[in-house]
Batch of 2 targets.
Target 1
Amino acid sequence: MAALALTSLASALLFACAAIADTTRIAAASSLRHAMEDLVASFQEQHPEHQLAVSYGSSGSLRAQIAHGAPFAAFFAADMERPEALVDSGHAASGVRHYASGQLVLWTRSRAEPPELEELTESAFRRIAIAHPEHAPYGARALEALQAEGIHEAVADRLVTGNSVARALQQAQSGAAQAALIPLSLATHPSVDEQGVYTPIDPDLHAPLRHGYIITRHGSGDEAMARFAAFMDSDGARTILEEHGFRPPE
Amino acid sequence: MLWISNADWVALQLTLKLASISTGLLLLLCLPLAWWLARSDSRARVVVEALVAMPLVLPPTVIGFYLLIFLGPEGWLGGLLEQLGIGHLAFTFTGMVIGSMIYSLPFAVQPMQNAFQAMGERPLEVAATLRASPLDRFFTVVIPLARNGFLTAAVLAFAHTLGEFGVLLMIGGSIAGETEVASIAIYNHVEAMDYAAAHGLSLFLLLMAFSLLLAVYFLNRRFKVVGVA
C-alpha cells in the first residue's frame, strides 16, 4: 500500500503538467449525441477561440462520474432529476436549466410499416431493447409506457437492456433485438433513418422527458462554458435541437 | 474503409504511453517482489502469491470500483491528495496508471518469479565461492539467466495493458486526450455508430496484440502464467 501511494505520488507529480488545460469538457446524455455534435460545431463557428470536447454516456453514469470528481464543466442530462441531485450534493455552480424535451419512439428494422406499441406482444418480437431503466431516463420512460399500455407483463422476459440508448438502438440495428424503444433524436439520424421505421410513443403514457443541464462547480468561471450556456439560449441552438427531434422547453 | 483519425491517433498514443509507463513501473516494483516470492520460505508467501494473482480472477469492474472509491475526492488517498492541493486521482491519467499496474501485476510478477525459480541456488553459490559480491552476482549471474523472464514479463504486462477496458472505464471515464485510450475510443465509436472508425482502431490493436504475443512465445516457448492453473 505504501508502495502504491509512493508510486501514485511520483506519477502525480510527473503528470500534473500533462493535462490539456485549454479544452472545456462537457458531459452529455447519449440521446443528445447527434444534436450536441451540431451544437458544438455551430458554437465553434462563432467562437473559434474556444475548444469544447464532449463525452457521452447515460445520464446516470455521467452523474456518478461528476460526483466522483470528473473534470466536466457542464452536464447535459436526459432528465431533470440527476442534475438536480448534483445541485443538492453541492457539485453544481448553477441551477438546473430546462433546455429541451424529448420524445420516445418505437424503432424496428424487421417491419416495413411502423409498428404500434401493442404489437410488441406478438411473438415475432423475440427481443425488445431498452436503455437501462436505472440510469437512463429513456429506459425508465420506456418501462412506464409498456406498463401504461398494459403489455409490460407480456413482454417483461423479452426485454434486453443496453447501458445507454445508443446501445439499445444498436441491439435493434444488429438484429439481436427485433425492436428498440429509443429517443426520436437517435431515430432521425440519417444512418438510422434509412435502416428502419419508427412510431412515436404517446407522451401521455409516461412521465414527461424534460432535459436539464447544469454548469458544474468545475466549470464555474470557465469563459468558454459561460459563452456556450449563452449560446444554448439562442434561436440557433433551439433550431438545431428541433431539427434533431427535441421540443423546445415549455 | 480503414483509416485512423487524428483523435484516434491521440487515443492510440495514450494507450502506448499508459502501457509503457505502467510496464516500466511494474518491472521496478515486481523485481524485488518476484525475487522474494521465488526465494522466501516464509509462511506469508502463499498469501502474497494469492494476492498477486487476484487481478486474474477479479472482474475488472471490482478493481475499478474500489480504485474509484480509494482515489476519488472522498477517498482515502484521493482525499489526502486533495488536502495537499495536488488534486484527487479519479478520472486522471495517473489514476489509470495505478489501475493498470494492479490489473497487470500477475503478468509481470509470475514470469520473473518462474525465471528466478528455474535458475535455482547453484549458479549463485558457485559465483559466491568465486568471491562475487551480492551486487556483482545479481548483475552478472541473475540478470543474464533470468533475461527471458524479464522480457516475457515486460511484453506480457504491456500487451495486457493494451487490452485493458473495464478498469479504465471506471477509473478514467472517457476524457479525450487525457483518459480516452484506444479500447475506450473503440467503445465510444460503437456507441456513436461510427463503425468504420471502430474497425480501424480494432484492426490496429489486433495486429499489435498478435505481434506482441508472437514475441512472447518466441522468447519463451515454455511460458505459462501460474497462479490459478
Note: The mean pLDDT of chain B is 88.
Target 2
Amino acid sequence: MTRRMVAFLAALMALMVLLSGCSDGNDAKTGSIAQGKELVYATAKDINDMNPHLYPGSMSAQGMVYESLVENTEDGIKPLLAESWEISNDGKVYTFHLRQGVKFHDGEPFDAEAVKKNIEAVQKNAKKHSWIKLSTKIVSCNVIDPYTVQLVLSETYYPTLVELSMTRPYVFISPKNFINGETKDGVNGYNGTGPYRLAEHKVDQYAIFEANENYWGGAPKVKKITAKVLPAGETTFLALKKGEVNFVFTDDRGTDSLDVEAMNKLAESGDYQIVRSKAMNTNMIAANSSKLDNPIHETAVRLAIWHAIDRETISKQIFHETEPAAYTLFSPNVNYANVELKKRGYDLEKAKKILDEAGWILKDGQTVRTKSGNKLDMKLYYDANSSSQKTQAEFIQNSLKKIGIQLQLVGEESTSIAKRRSTGDYDLLFNQTWGLAYDPQSTVSAFASESSYYHTTSGITKADELYKKIDQVMVSTDEDTRKSLYADILTIVHEEAVFIPITNGNVTVIAPKNLQGVSFKQTQYELPFEQMHFK
Amino acid sequence: MGSFIIKRVLVSIPLLLIISFLTFVLINLSPLDPAEVVLHAQGVPKITDELIAQTKAELGMDRPFLIRYINWFMACLQLDFGKSYVTGEPVWSLLGPAFLNTLKLTLVSVIFIIALSILLGVICALKEGKMMDKSVRGISFFLTSMPSYWLAALMIWYFSVKLDLLPTSGMDSYKSYILPVIVIVLSYAGIYFRIVRSSMVSNLNEDYVLYGRACGLPEKKITMHILRNSLQVAISVFCMAIPIILGSTVVVENVFAWPGLGSLSVKSILSRDFPMIQAYVLVLAVAFVLFNTISDIINAAMNPKLRKDL
C-alpha cells in the first residue's frame, strides 16, 4: 500500500506538471515579453483613477499620458505644449503661445480653447488644490487666438511656471472626456497629448500603454509599456528573474519593493542594469519648536539631537548606501539651496556639551538628563508602514540614550502623522521634503502653512522674520533678491535645527541591460520613458 | 424538515443585523475624522478646514450616526455599498469582480482539499498506526505548519523560474490557477485530512462495526458505512472551509498578485477606504453565516435528531 500510495502521489505530481506543460495556445498577455521591444514594469499598486485633475492616480502613469504647458528641467523651465511665453511687467499676466498641430489621443485638437477649459475645470475644484499656491492666484484664463492663451493672476507669483509644469493638476485632457463640462467628479476617458496613451486597464492586474505614433515630439521608440501589479517584493524579484517583468523603479510614495541585495543579484546576473538618480529629496525629522512645555522647544536640545545622529551609519547599514547622508535640509542641487551652511556632523561629545551648557544635567546614577525637575524625554512619531523609518527610529533612540535623552517611539498610520503635523500634537516626527521639481518653494511655503510645518517653525525666535521672508520670496520678481531671501530662510531654519536631515532619497531604476537612454525627470514620481530605446 | 430550514434561516437574520451594525460602529469609532480620511485616501496633498467642511456635506457625514447607519444598511440590501473613498467608483463595481476572482480560487481549492483529505483520511484511518499513516501525518503536519508565504515563493522559484512551466503570478489563463491552488491545498488539506481521519478512527471502534463484522458483512460494505457516518462530521467542517479560505487568501493573493478580496482588503485598509472595508467585512460575514446555515441544514437532513434543537 505504501508503495501504491507513493506511486499515486508521484502520478498526481506528474499530472500536475503535465497539465502545466500543456500550452493553451494563447500566450498570456503579460506572460512573455517581446524582448528588445517593450517594457513591463512592476508596481506595488494599481495605476488607479487616471483623471489628471485629481490625486488618486499613479503619477508615473499620468506622466506618460498627460503633458503640461512647460517642463521643469535641470536647466530651468523649458517649452512643452507652450512654445514660448511672455510675462507682463507687473508679473500678473502670462501669455502662452501654444505649439501648433498637437492633437489629443482621441484626435481632438489641442488649442487655446482646450487650455482654457482644462484650467477652468481645475479651478472649479480649487479647494482640493490648495497645496499648489497658484490655484489661489488664478483670476482668469482667456483665449486670445486659437494658439494664444492668457493666464491672469491676482498678484505676482514667481513659481507660476514651476507649478504649471507639475504632473498635476495643470495638465491637459481632451475636452471630450469632460463630464458636464467638468472633471472634478470624474472623466469618461483618459486622452492626453503625451507620448503614450492608455490602451487597456484591468484593475489590480495591469495597465497597457501604447506609443502615441502621432506624438508631436516624435513617436517613442519603446512601443509598449505595461504596468503590472505585483504587491509582493519576492514575486517581483522572481518575475524579473524569469523575465515576465523587465523594469522596476522606486514608485510613488517611495516604497521600494526590492531590497538592495535583490537588486545587486539582478545586476550581477548580467541581464539588468541599475541606474540611480541624483538626490531628489531629503528624509528628515521635523521638531516641534512651538511645544513650550517640552524640551524640544529649546534650540540646544534640537542641536544636540542633530549631533547625536550618526547619518553615515544609517546610510550604510539601513539604506545599504543607496541613500547618502544629508547634512542640510535641501541638497545643494536644489534651486537656490546652494547656500553656505555650517556642517554639523556626528559628535556625541559635542552633543553632551551643548546639553550641559543648556542646563540639562545628568545626575549620578541616572540615565536621563533633568533640568529643574523635568526629564529630557520626548516622543518620536514614525510611519508604522515603513520598515526603514522604524529601524531608523530605533537606531536614533539608541544614540540619544548615550547622551542622556530618552526618546519614546510611536508608530502610526501616515494619516495620523499628517494630522499630528497639522495640529502640533507631536515632539518629533519623520517627514520628507517635496522633491526637486517642487523645492525649495513647496517645502518652504509649507514652513508657514497651518496644515504643514507651522508648528515646527513657529516656536523659534526669528519666526516672524522667517514668515515675512517667505511671503517676500514668493512674490519676488528679481533673481538676486530671491537668492538672498532663500539663503536667509535656509540659514534661519538651519541655525534653529527645526528640520533635522538624515538622508537624501533618490530614484533607482532596474532596467534591461540593453535599454539605453534611461534618465530622470526633476521629480521622483515619473520617468521619461519616451527617451528610452533598446540597443 | 421544511420548518427547520425556515427557522434556521430566520435565526441568521438578526445575527447579520448585529454584524452589520457592529461593522458600522467599529469603523465609525475610529478617532479620525471620516472627511479627512476621504481626502487622504484621495491623495489630496493639503487639507484645509473648509475643504473638510465641504467634503462632509458632500458625503452627508454631517448627519446623525443612526440615520447614516440606516441609510447605509438600506442601500446595502440593494447591493449598493456606497462609493469608494479613493476612486469615487461604486464599491460593488470593485468588490464584485474581486469577490468572484477569490471565489473561483476558493472553490477550485476546496474541491481539491475535499478530495485529497477524504482520500488520505480514509487510507490513514484504515492503516492506523502503520508506517503509511505515520508518514502522511508527518508530511501533512510539516506542510500545514509551513508559512504559506514561504511555500508560495518556493513554488514560484521552482516551477516558474527554474522549470519555466508556469507564470509567476497574475490571473491570465487556467495556468495561473495551478500554483496558488497548490499552495492553498497544501496549507489546508492537512487540517481537514486529520478531521476525516479521526472521525473514521472513532467510528471504526463503534459497536455497529463489530456487529457488522460478527454478522459477516463484507469488509467493503462496513467501510462504506463507516465512511458515511464519519463524513457527517466532515461535511459541516468542509462547508465552513469555503468562507474560511475566502477570508484568508490575503497572503496567497499578495504573493501571486491575484486580484481578489484579499488584495482588495489590504489595499482598502491601508488607504482607509471605509465603505470598502465595511462591504468586505459584511460580505465575509454573510458568507460565514450562509455556509454555517447550509451545513446545519445538511446535517439536519442527514440526522433527524439535530432538528429538535431549534
Note: Confidence is low (pLDDT under 50) at residues 12-31 of chain A.
